[in-house]
């Protein structure tokens, strides 16, 4: 099965309903979306071959939706690139993927041209989204040839966010993406034609991955007019579209909550916020639940098993048990999840080890990178690099990436646990805990602290606060007070930068 069939079916059932919106304005109905996708597909087949990688480099725009389906109808592989990457990083992805075409937004086109100069990707054809060539492509004849039904065909070459090194291309097949889509509808949220997906997070990643589930159910895709995440605009859109849902990174949830609190606003049609991609601290989750009500579900996944390893259901968010709220929930439908030791042997309930998973969502490997593939896929399992443990009820709790665990005086310390405690201090706004090499202890625990505006915090006060709830050896030996924390384009704290800061003294 080809993902294009999701749009084909939706267009047959809901031809006249709005499929894509820019802000509040309808961009295309389902019948128009299908037709445009097929026209662009014909344009792609006129210049390329099945299996070609077609890059998309743009901030969130309504055209993203037709491009995905056009590329799939043409039997090619979408290669979305985060718009906030440096042009040189964008070129690296074009080089690595060998993309033959890049659809680029007018905003990014200039920077890309410069960065392509002298690159091996210089022959990659540039088509400006909304430009003359693009418009001509979307106005031609529809693709009338066969649509490749092979579920193993590459549908999305997904470049990881690269918090631990250079970005790698996870090869996601149509089968992987369908398994993800079905599991989303089964585990996370029920979607129908009266629902809308607000693309506030990058469509090159989580938000774009959810597009297929919403198209399959005849629901709306809403791209904010700002092409970005503006909390006030987001809240407005929630009043203007039916049954609004969105995927948000935890830092975006926090910004939305602050905006809602500031304006005393409760968005009328906010149905669902799915968060994940990084840790959501229990304290923040409780505050957000108090403001928005029971609209939250959490997902745990990674590019290699997109959005689909575990999820914490909406009803679990009603729990007053911190262990439930601090977990990533249960293994997803159709995904086996286990926790293993350093030799890959399963560990008993309660013990911390590396999280592994297998199932139809797991990628085939990394593009042109057999070494990294052999490290990640072993014995049919995906080794996630995340540490965690199951409890007796089946809840999976993520500790940290194995690389982030601090080993001090021979004891393992999970930064997340210390961060959760520090965030309960009323004057702490943000925190990141990491290890610093130390001749005596191997590593010591260091906390970078961002204070709430106008508050002074003393290390002594933080020590006292920690002593009240965690073992002394986990308590930071050093506190560094900073204005803000370095974050990547997905809002994830870049621990690597903080560690480098420590190494530099
Ligand atoms: P990416 O491949 O860029 O989506 O990054 C995936 C990584 O983000 C995972 O391996 C985890 O380390 C982290 N992550 C994803 N979801 C969650 C979550 N719900 N809670 C904490 N960390 C998460």
Structure, described:
The structure is a single chain. The chain is an alpha/beta fold and 505 residues long. It folds into 2 domains: 4-390, ANL, N-terminal domain (Rossmann fold, 3-Layer(aba) Sandwich), CATH 3.40.50.12780; 406-503, GMP Synthetase, Chain A, domain 3, CATH 3.30.300.30. Helix content is 33%, strand content 27%. The protein contains 17 helices and 25 strands. The strands form 6 sheets. A 9-stranded mixed sheet has the order 2-1-10-9-11-12-13-14-15. α4 (87-97) crosses α5 (106-116). Bound molecules: adenosine monophosphate. Residues 160-161, 276-279, 298, 300-303, 328, 384, 386, 398, 401 line the site of adenosine monophosphate (AMP). Adenosine monophosphate (AMP) is lined by residues 160-161, 276-279, 298, 300-303, 328, 384, 386, 398, 401.
Distance from N terminus to C terminus (CA atoms, Å) equals 55 Å
CATH topology of the largest domain: Rossmann fold
Number of domains: 2
Per DSSP E runs of 2 or more residues, the count of β-strands stands at 25
Bin the helical content: 25-40%
Hetero ligands: adenosine monophosphate
Radius of gyration: 23 Å
CATH class of the largest domain: Alpha Beta
Q: What class do helices, strands and sheet pairing give? A: alpha/beta
Tally the helices: what do you get?
17
Strand order of the largest sheet: 2-1-10-9-11-12-13-14-15
The gross shape turns out to be globular
Report the CATH superfamily of the largest domain. ANL, N-terminal domain
Could you tell me the strand content as a percent range?
25-35%
Q: Report the biggest beta sheet as strand number plus sense, adding barrel if it closes.
A: 9 strands, mixed
Contiguous low-pLDDT stretches (5 residues minimum) are: none
* CATH architecture call of the largest domain: 3-Layer(aba) Sandwich
Mean pLDDT: 94
Domain AMP-binding enzyme C-terminal: 417-492
Domain AMP-dependent synthetase/ligase: 8-367
Protein name: AMP-binding protein
Organism: Azospirillum melinis
